[in-house]
Amino acid sequence: MPEYIRLFIPPITGDELDCLRDAIERRELAGNGHYTQLCNSWLVNQVGVGEALLTVSCTAALEMAAILSDLNSADEVIMPSYTFVSTANAVVLRGATPVFVDIRPDTLNIDEKKIESAISPRTKAIFVVHYAGVPCEMDYINSIARRHGLLVVEDAAQALLSTYHGRPAGSLGDLGCFSFHASKNITSGEGGALTINRQELYSRAYIVWEKGTNRRAFWQGKVDKYTWVDVGSSFLPNELTAAFLVAQFKHADALTRDRFITWDYYYGAFAELEARGVLRRPVVPPYVAHNAHLFYLLLNSNSIRDATISKLKAVDIVAPFHYVPLHSSPAGLRFGRTCGDLKITDDVANRLLRLPLWNGIGDRAKRVADVLVGMLQ
After folding, report:
1. Which of 51, 84, 89, 287 makes the best surface tag, with the fewest CB within 10 Å?
2. Would residue 36 count as lying in a domain?
């Protein structure tokens, strides 16, 4: 029987147990201790931002960003429809309206040239998503935001260690949100982080992070007691999560290099089929450095894509589609609105196929490619 090949397997570096043991011995389990501070400092230095705060998930980071954006029921936020639900949920939870626009046909990121026509007097922010670890056209997007006085939030869940014109994802907007879910390049099982690029948001971010209290000011001796001062929630993870993540951060570059071996192999393996018009491989602009987060193919029709998924499943290879576009989902229809047609979003969602990619996949990637090429010849 052929080996069952999963879509992803979380990476393990070998240092996790030592870090967890040390965290337990320190008796700092509740969060914001030694390992949380190490994670925050690593992110500040790696991403190049003023502040970074570890969170329980990227969903939580997006919800913090929505609070810091001062969203309310009078506001709208422009975003792509081709994204995970958390991007929109964060906005809806503040009572605001997601406004969905189409994506580019090449990178599958938000089409920056569709943003300005979606701006209304109610628009408060633009939430961009760096799909597959390939950053959006941030210079163009930031110029729109400056002209209209809008905040820019990066959903960089898939983009840790990616860069745009040499600048790290997560430092390209006002706020950045990362994921350390088990499916990501660097993981703590669940987990995330918020990066903050506007100095006027630093103090409030800490308050929101610590359940809406001024606890940090209390520990700094700036107030004589800490109390509830703003909206917030339990966004802070425990120290065991942070300790696990520190063990991953130590090997971040090596983990990324290993993923590129597979990504590059896939890219070469499907070159001939792309030349013959059978499929399309990912597009990465020359001024972008991605992080090999995921590898996808765009097949020529929905029927071919769905049939391919079924055939791969029959030989124990997990290769699914990705998002159901939010604008056509039940909640998207209820809570959001669209600007213009979203033909590319719908088309991509119907044809995209994700391939297994994880650290240590090794020769299994060759089996995936060989089987797929055989099916699609």
Report:
1. 287
2. yes
Give the other-Cβ count within 10 Å of 254's Cβ: 12
Q: Tell me: pLDDT of 102 over 90.
A: yes
Evaluate if residue 176 carries a pLDDT over 80.
yes
Residue 274, in any domain of the structure: yes
Is residue 268 domain-shared with residue 326, that is, in the same domain?
A: yes
Same domain, 331 and 183: no
E strands of the chain, at which residues?
51-55, 76-80, 97-101, 123-129, 151-155, 163-164, 167-168, 175-179, 192-196, 279-280, 288-289, 295-299, 337-338, 352-355
How many CA atoms lie within 13 Å of 377's alpha carbon, on the beta-carbon side? 6
Full residue range of the structural domain in which residue 332 is found: 252-376
* pTM, 2 dp: 0.97
Is 28 part of any domain?
A: yes
* Sequence-ordered list of residues with C-beta below 8 angstroms from that of 286, at least 6 positions apart, any chain: none
**Is residue 237 located within the same domain as residue 262?**
no
Distance CA 265, CA 69 (A): 41
Residue 249 pLDDT? 98
Distance (Å, whole) CA 100 – CA 76: 10
- At 293-349, the pLDDT tens digits run 999 999 999 999 999 999 999 999 999 999 999 999 999 999 999 999 999 999 999
Q: 195: helix, coil or strand?
A: strand
Please report, for the domain that includes residue 314, its CATH number: 3.90.1150.10
Domain count, the chain: 2
167 three-class SS:
strand
- Reported as a single tens digit per residue, the pLDDT across 46-90 is 999 999 999 999 999 999 999 999 999 999 999 999 999 999 999
Assigned domain for 2 exists? no
Q: Do residues 130 and 150 share a domain?
A: yes
In this structure, the chain runs to a length of 377
Amino acid letter, 304: I
